[in-house]
Request: fold
Amino acid sequence: MLAFRAFSICLLGLVLGASRLPNLPQLSLDQVSAPIRRQIQEAYDALHSHPQHAAANGQLGMLFFAYQQNQPAAVCFERARALDPEHP
Reply:
């Protein structure tokens, strides 16, 4: 019974956590060069296909951060952490 209760609490946490995920950041790539735009667009497309994938959220966040797009990077990092809190 205790195991079932723990499982239920974990499942509830996952459902509530997933429902509180911030929206994917909007892309604003007008000011970046074509190679950077392509990198970010490819990572964004991969994430859009699998929005619950923590690593894809983190990868897009790292790209945004690398190119001084700090606000969308923070959103991606927050999503990655919410989806996989064991690997912040």
Q: What stands out?
A: Helices lie at 2-19, 34-49, 54-66, 70-83. Residues 58 and 80 are 5 Å apart (CA to CA). The longest helix spans residues 2-19.
